[in-house]
Amino acid sequence: MATTRRGKEGTRDGRVTRRQLIRMAAAGGAAAAGARLAGAFPVPAVLGAAPVKIGLLVSYSKVYGQLGEDITNGMTLYFDSVKWQAGGRRLTWIREDEEIDPQVGVRKARKLIEADRVDLLTGIVSTATAYAIRDMVHNSRTILIVSNAGGDQLTRARKSPFIFRVSFSSWQVSYPFGKWFYENVARAAVLTAANYAFGTESIGDFKQSFVPAGGKVLGEVYPPLNNTDYAPYIAQVEKLKPEGTYNFYSGSDAVRFIQQAAQYGLTKKTQITGAGFMVEQDVLPAEGPSALGIYSPLHWALTLQTPENLAFTRAYRERFKRDASVFAMQGFDAARVIVEALTRTNGDTSNKDRLIEAIAGVKFQSPRGPFEFDPATHNVIQTIYVRQVRQVGKTIANVVFENLGRVRDPG
Amino acid sequence: MSYYLLQALNGCAYGMLLFLLAAGLSLIFGLMDVVNLAHGGFYMLGAYLALSLVRWTGSFWIALAVVPLLTAAGGFLLEWELLRPLYRRTHLDQILLTFGVAFVLMDLARWLWGADVQSLPAPPGLDRSVLLFGTLFPVYRLFVIALGAALGLALWIVLGRTRLGATVRAGVANKEMTQALGIDIGMVFTCVFAFGTGLAGLAGVVAAPVQGVFPGVDFETLIVTLIVVVVGGLGTLKGSFWGSLLIGEADTFGKILLPQLALVIIYLVMATVLLLRPGGLFGGKTR
Amino acid sequence: MRPALRIAASAVPRGAGLGTRSRGVLGWMALAAILGGLPLVLSRYVTVTLTEILIFALFAMSLDLLVGYAGLVSLGHAASFGVAAYVVGLLSTRGVTALAVTLPAGLLSGAAAALVIGVFALRATGVYFLMLTLAFAQMAYAVAHQWSAVTGGTNGLSGIPRPAVPGVDLGSTLPFYYLVLVLCAGAALLLWRIVRSPFGAALVGVRENEARMRALGFDTFRLKVVAFVIAGAAAALSGTLYAYYNGFVSPDVLYWTTSGQVLIMVLLGGAGTLVGPAAGASAVLLLQNLVSSYTERWTLILGVAFILVVLAAPRGLVGLVARRWTPSS
After folding, report:
1. Would you list the domain boundaries of chain A?
2. To the nearest whole percent, how much of chain A has pLDDT over 70?
3. I need a labelling partner for C310 at 20 to 30 A (CA). Which of A221, A253, C77, C98 fits?
4. Which chains touch A (3 or more CB pairs under 8 A)?
């Protein structure tokens, strides 16, 4: 092993001397401290009352970085439309990166709640992070409006009056599809999913309605999360010769699985179906023609023909120069929930019980259809659609062709 | 039977992909005794650069030819400017520095190309599938196998039969002696390093149609590459080649025969190999 | 006891004579006093943040024993940390909350993990050793990731209650902070004494020239394993406290990025000084939190910071501040 260095350092390369480094660091630290202190004394709003502080905690880095950006964009779009005001107060937010690491998520949530003293917290992409901060949120009586994390238990065993979810629960997406699959795709299926909580939970939810309807599970295959090569698994699935498959993948796993399934001819041999996230807007462009024909259940689609959705998708495209995704829509709705609730309480965020009541009572026509909260669980009640990936003009999109009705998580 | 043959072919394709990555890192490690944690970053950069070049020129082959040159240039710069002063220092400093470079590369990629998961389509001609062992097999994977084998052969010839190769091998065996013979070992180092990062870039382009292009692909790949390099033995081409194949096949068969162990198959293989042969399969020195 | 101190003297850390030893202890005590008094004047949030810094400072110091003194660069230190965190989490969520039970359980499990890993990995050296430690930590990660019935899988174990100590409510910030302070300071002091003992000197000797130490009659393998287990126990302590701190454990605590992060803390702060890694831990945590509040490009800034430190501060942050600070060599 080489020896440690001794003697004069910092002068060797002449690039950055030690003194310069100390000065830079000191200046940086002073600036940061100054800014932080300044932030501790918010400038009073023109409207008289202090602005409402919203903490937005989503992932901006690593594989799910796009989801965080989409949610943020969706919220921005809605807040812009109401000029960042609600209930007579200005709206401001503080954004933090949860990095898809629950340990980091807890740390950032704590900062938002205790140091920044936000009036409400929203976001949360990862279910693990949601479970991690659940107790902190509940004990500090902070209202949390979840705009993604879909773990079933968050609004069941681990629910809290302070936690509202505007996105979905895994059950809502996969359960209704089981019976539909039996009736419209095949009586027997092979089930595959990335081997992590979201994946296994979704498969379990699918089986809950598929099996009692008479469906037979031919086999279950669980590749590890972040798996590169699906070839061995695809070969396994083919060996079972299923007429249809139900799958769960998201992010880069979804792209790889779909592409490799097409390359190995699986898409032609069997009807591939999967939870909507497998072919959502964040991954569909990368999957391209390989995804054609895939059925998926989800609570929204880019092509959904409701007037609200047409307006939303058009405005989103104009503003951000890219297509909206279900995550953007969830952010959009979360922002609307906040604004409508604040309007009802006339901007009062100090009376938590009153604010909770106001949020629980919010009902509106969302781009996804009618939106309301379940008073028992604070989870959203929404319509689930069945979509198919089709060629629409020059692009490939999820086209809605069936409606599975209003779905309410049992809690 | 054909099912297992199919899986073996899958394992071979995956192994060759790993070989492209490992060859460069093994040389750098073996020759220069430098820990380059930014290797994954060059791989990722190669994939992203290929994305842009293909969009710009419409040709995968141009990207395949140009990207390795770009990443080699990047490696040249990195070695010259940042790593050179560190040769007298410990591995720890190199770890910290190259980690820093890796972070910078990762964030730069996210900044310049966005956080989306993107994909690079296989070039027309290679994006078909053929009937093999009773099922459809993508031609692109066959291309990867062929490329890996060709590269292996080319490297073997250069390292074994040319003067340049002899110089490099001498350097791996004994730096000081080689220098004493009047060879500018510094320049050899820089060139080998640049070659290594060039290979990483090439691997990035070739793997992109299979693996996808997204932020985070660099660190995922780095770990697997390190495992292959260590299993094969530092600094030996034979080691990288056979190590890659071993890991590729073990991973593939492990996934179907021992699915519960899918996450750790390659670690188990590495641990077993190292416990039986502490220097890796073909590594002489137990450094 | 080992052969004559006389021989070991040549490997004794510079500046580790009697005078500096008592100076060192005084220094630690002063720091402990400051840390003890701070929370009384600062806000709750700062106290909570300080608690986390203390936990990671200990984690980094435990790794320094291996990296800075024994010369064993491990990329699997998260194994002891994470195993202890899970054991404590599992016990606590199943009703066993007495600190008197969970603390030893955590320490023992982490130390046991270190023992098992050490016995296998220490047969190799250099990069091979590094990769073996990585491999074993990843295996632990895989178990946590997949054995969802027990570990909660990727959702992790949540709702971990604070430990039960008769007469004290560790659920509130200050008492928990003092518990962490006392335990971490105590462990740090122990580590300090260890590196200044003949054992510590022998470790340095092994790092400098293992063959020579063996020729002198030392059982270097045993020395290294013992060091590994001690470091593992200290890491296990920080892991135990971390599980209580967050009230939550997920497989990420065992992932190689955790091992990488603590290694960075050691390198950034200055390996081989014990104090350096503690400072490095504080710096990394503060940097990550502060910078990410202001810009999305915090990864870039962090990377640049690492590069700058390597180029301009070769002995880490500690080397920047204390001109005459000599690491153990």
Report:
1. 52-168+305-378, 171-298+386-407
2. 88
3. C77
4. B, C
Q: Do C312 and A15 touch (CB under 8 A)?
A: yes
The parent domain of residue B86 ranges over 2-276
The structure's pTM equals 0.87
> Domains in chain B: how many in total?
1
ipTM comes to 0.87
Q: Point out the residue among C141, C268, C303 whose CB comes nearest to the CB of B103.
A: C303
What are the domain boundaries of chain C? Answer: 23-256
pLDDT at C19 > cutoff 60? no
- Looking at residue B184, its pLDDT comes to 82
Q: Domain for residue B161, yes or no?
A: yes
List Cα–Cα distances, B265 to A235, B32, B249, B260, C139, in angstroms: 19, 29, 11, 9, 9
Q: How far is A8 from chain B (nearest CA, A)?
A: 14
CB contact under 8 A, A233 and B256: yes
The closest of A360, A340, A369, A396 to A87, measured between CA atoms, is: A340
Q: Quick check: A13 and C154 CB within 8 A? A: no
Q: Residue ranges of chain B with pLDDT lower than 70? A: 284-287
Q: Dump pLDDT digits (tens) for C141-193.
A: 999 998 888 998 999 999 999 998 888 888 888 999 999 999 999 999 999 99
- The answer to whether residue A11 neighbours chain B at the CB level (below 8 Å) is no
Question: Is position B164 within any domain?
Answer: yes
- The topology (CATH level 3) of A171-298+386-407 is Rossmann fold (3.40.50)
For domain A52-168+305-378, the question of CATH label 3.40.50.2000 is answered with no
Report DSSP letters for A300-337, one per residue: --TT---HHHHHHHHHHHHHHSS---HHHHHHHHHHHH
C-beta atoms of B129 and A229 within 8 A = no
Does residue B286 fall inside a structural domain?
no
Torsion of CA C294, C300, C301, C307, to 10 degrees: 170
B281 is a domain residue: no
Determine the distance in angstroms separating the CA of B52 from the nearest CA of chain A, rounded to an integer: 14
Domain of B115, CATH number, reads 1.10.3470
- Which three-class secondary structure state does DSSP give residue A244? strand
